[in-house]
Write a structure and sequence with these properties.
Helices cover about 5% and strands about 50% of the residues. The protein is mainly beta and about 800 residues long. This is TonB-dependent receptor.
Length: about 800
């Protein structure tokens, strides 16, 4: 199936052309003192691409994604560039490690090595990065962008040369899932001369990474191929993983007017990733523990794209691209139970985990059971996009226009297989039939497959049209109107499922619930218009003031749009109005920065029982609303430039203040539909802070790098203020089990927002701080470096999702070498 998909795409693509990787409009600054060259990246991390008149034409074309200094003017809002220089000097081991340095970002970890990205911006939920559009070289990376935009596959940071982040009105050019912003990971361009690069890194927790790059330009064709192997034991017990990758990028200049680019990628991943988190006692006793040693997730991804760029004239280009990807995500997860109040130990228990010495507290024990479930899923998508970029003049007014359209198709096969009960192994010490017998159960004998319970086919079709015009009214002042139209259809075909589903509670009946053949299909359709408008004003030689407003949106997931009984729930896409204004630029030759204020009005949020935040509802509805206000600033002061030294000594200050609050009541929808006005059934969450958003995030970084010797060192301190786990902003108490021994007491405590934190499922996320450091030495063709993450080895809670306490990464010290031939 995988090869058929790739071959079919190649046949189609032979007739079409895909452009370069999307040119994200957040572009890096030019060193010349021109106000059009500014972005919000700290000055010491900016890197200017070298232009060589001997370079092939395609190297200056948009296929580079980087663009020139005027491109920032296409975005009347905030834009961040993380450059090659910064990535080389910090050597991040995962994407979230570097992205949490971006103003406005909130992240959380839930697996052994940041393999699943949980990223949000400006208080928007970071749950599997559903509300942020994640691209690699301008192409989709999520499983199904219009139906299941989860980031279980994440581009490997080792392959990246740059990262671009757009949160302003420039998001109009991209979609879907742009409420939180757009992130574009950029891979290496083919070099001019044939070059072999080898990077080897090893460190704590059996971490090992090896990447080999080879590329060059031969005549009018450039290519770059890389192979990556990464592995480790993870920072918790029983969380080993490995990643294998291979990627090929080629760029061919057909003639003076036509460029062709292709990209083929392969990603393989296996990890002991789990949803099972720790209880409070387990976290306090051993935060590196992990009861789910039999959970295993495997991912295979194949991607292909081909694109064509046609220079119709000096000021007009037509860019066409075709793209596709195929992903298998299979996840075997062992069943488990908790010793909640009144529960008994299951008879098929294979192992017991508790937070000694608190073994008798309800909720503080996890029983790993003798069955598992296999969540096997296959995702495919393909699309074609054509974009016209041109510059025209109407009298004395100049226009820079982007006009494009895209057709996109998603497909998914979703199955759940229940594994059989673990067999019992009986050992007779004196031979078969003798007594006494010793009964043993093998925890490693969980089934590799099982009986089909759920079987679905899901798909989505989408058509997008967008137009943006940068109107230069004067040399210093521009207005930038834009609009995007999205029309998409989602289909859910339910072949097999559990029989007994309660439409009132919107949940399956407990107990024995046989699987039946349903063969039902439903379709949901949506259309949305997304306007945007912004301005830029160069009010000083190197300073720019910008304003922007735009409409963001995120489509419903398949499970939310269509019920388990194949009913169209008539949900609207989640939408937001995003407003921002700010200034950026070089205040002096040694001091640069940016200051941005924003307001985000997030409405039509889809609320259901699985939503992060502990909402009490069940049937998905567009009932969620929130208001997000905040300030983002980053400043860089270079003491080396100030003192005219032969060193760069940049001090970075990056600060975010986020006030993201609920603007709704949280209803128990089942009780509400029956007319139940009991206040214990409904919670007033107006004004409550949103879950998993730190109000204050501060990063202080001081670096020293020699312009002549190649030596560099960087020390960084990061602070993240406390977060709430649920929308009710529940307080937690360790004495809940004694104070709440009666049902009435527990109800009263719940009503006033006090919950038990024993299970680890509820409670605040305490504030934490991290110290990171890097030191290295670079010569012309080799380098050595030492990097340390969380040097204090802080034991902190990153999340209580999906199912209990997920610790953040502990200390990780790595040593590495690079060689270029």
């Amino acid at each position: 199936m995988k090869m058929k998909l790739l071959l079919s795409c190649i046949l189609v693509l032979a007739l079409i052309a895909v452009p370069e990787t999307i040119q994200l409009q957040a572009q890096e600054a030019n060193t010349k003192p021109n106000s059009e060259s500014q972005d919000q990246t700290p000055k010491e991390t900016q890197e200017i691409p070298e232009e060589n008149p001997e370079d092939p034409k395609w190297k200056k074309a948009e296929i580079r994604v980087i663009g020139d200094k005027k491109d920032l003017k296409r975005i009347p809002g905030s834009a961040t560039i993380i450059t090659k220089k910064f990535l080389e000097e910090t050597r991040p081991t995962d994407n979230m490690e570097v992205l949490r340095r971006v103003p406005g970002a909130n992240i959380r970890y839930q697996d052994p090595a940041g393999l699943t990205m949980n990223l949000g911006f400006r208080g928007v939920s970071g749950e599997v990065s559903r509300k942020v559009l994640i691209l690699e070289d301008g192409l989709f990376t999520s499983l199904n962008p219009y139906g299941e935009p989860e980031m279980y596959y994440t581009p490997s940071i080792e392959r990246m040369e740059r990262i671009e982040v757009v949160k302003g009105s420039g998001s109009i050019l991209f979609g879907p899932s742009t409420i939180g912003g757009v992130v574009n990971f950029i891979t290496r361009r083919p070099p001019k001369d044939p070059t072999l690069n080898i990077q080897t890194i090893g460190g704590e927790n059996a971490y090992f990474s090896q990447m080999v790059n080879y590329g060059g330009t031969f005549g009018n064709t450039g290519f770059d191929v890389n192979v990556l192997r990464k592995q480790g034991d993870g920072f918790r017990a029983n969380q080993g993983y490995f990643v294998n990758e291979a990627n090929l990028k080629t760029i061919h200049q057909l003639n003076e007017k036509h460029n062709l680019t292709t990209k083929v990628g392969f990603h393989q991943q296996e990890s002991q990733a789990t949803y099972v988190g720790l209880t409070t006692g387990m976290f306090q006793n051993n935060p590196k523990d992990n009861p789910a040693q039999n959970d295993k997730r495997t991912i295979e991804r194949y991607s292909f794209s081909i694109g064509h760029e046609w220079s119709l004239s000096e000021k007009t280009k037509l860019i066409t691209r075709v793209y596709s990807a195929y992903t298998e995500r299979n996840w075997a997860r062992q069943n488990y139970s908790r010793n909640s109040r009144g529960s008994t130990k299951p008879t098929d228990t294979l192992a017991t985990y508790d937070g000694e010495p608190y073994t008798d507290r309800p909720g503080d024990t996890i029983w790993m059971r003798g069955t598992n479930a296999h969540r096997d899923r296959t995702y495919k998508f393909a699309g074609i996009e054509t974009k016209l970029q041109t510059e025209i003049e109407t009298g004395s007014i100049k226009h820079e226009i982007d006009l494009g359209t895209r057709y996109h198709l998603d497909m998914a096969k979703v199955q759940l297989l229940n594994g059989p009960t673990t067999p019992d192994f009986v050992i007779y010490p004196n031979g078969v039939g003798s007594t006494p017998a010793v009964l043993l159960q093998s925890q490693t004998s969980l089934a590799n497959s099982g009986e089909l319970r759920d079987d679905e086919r899901r798909s989505a079709k989408a058509v997008s049209v967008y137009l943006q015009d940068r109107i230069r009214l004067t040399e210093k002042f521009s207005v930038i109107p834009g609009v995007r139209y999205e029309s998409f259809t989602q289909t859910r075909s339910i072949n097999r499922a559990r029989r007994d589903f309660d439409p009132a509670t919107f949940d399956y009946f407990s107990g024995t619930n046989p699987t039946v053949q349903l063969d039902k299909t439903a379709t949901a359709k949506n259309q949305i218009v997304l306007p945007g408008f912004g301005t830029t004003l160069d009010f000083a030689k190197n300073m720019t003031w910008f304003t922007g407003v735009h409409r963001g949106f995120s489509p419903p997931r398949y499970e939310s749009a269509i019920s388990p009984t194949a009913e169209d729930l008539v949900l609207k896409p989640e939408r937001s109005w995003n407003y921002e204004t700010g200034v950026r630029g070089d205040i002096t030759e040694y001091f640069s920065g940016q200051l941005v204020g924003y307001l985000l009005n997030f409405e039509d949020q889809i609320i259901n029982s699985s939503a992060a935040g502990g909402n009490l509802g069940s049937r998905p509805v567009n009932a969620g609303r929130s208001i997000h206000r905040g300030v983002e600033t980053n400043m860089t002061f270079d003491f080396g430039q100030f003192w005219k030294l032969d060193y760069q000594i940049p001090l970075d200050i990056i600060y975010t203040r986020t006030e993201a609050k609920s603007n709704q009541y949280t209803y128990n929808l089942g009780a509400w539909s029956k007319g139940d006005s009991n206040p214990f059934a409904h919670v007033d969450t107006n004004g409550n802070r949103l879950p998993y958003v730190s109000r204050d995030i501060l990063t202080l970084s001081l670096g020293i790098s020699s312009r002549s010797t190649g030596f560099y060192v960087r020390v960084e301190w990061q602070y993240f203020s406390k977060q709430f786990h649920d929308l009710e902003n529940s307080k937690t108490v360790s004495w809940y089990d004694t104070a709440g021994t009666t049902a009435n007491n527990r109800t009263i405590l719940n009503y006033v927002g006090i919950k038990s934190d024993v299970s680890g499922l509820d409670g605040e996320i305490p504030a934490y701080e991290l110290v990171n450091a890097n030191i290295g030495y670079k010569k012309d063709n080799w380098s050595v470096f030492l990097s340390g993450k969380n040097l204090q080895d802080r034991k902190y809670i990153s999340s209580r999702l999906p199912e209990g306490i997920q610790p953040g990464p502990f200390r990780q010290v790595n040593f590495g070498v690079t060689l270029q031939l």
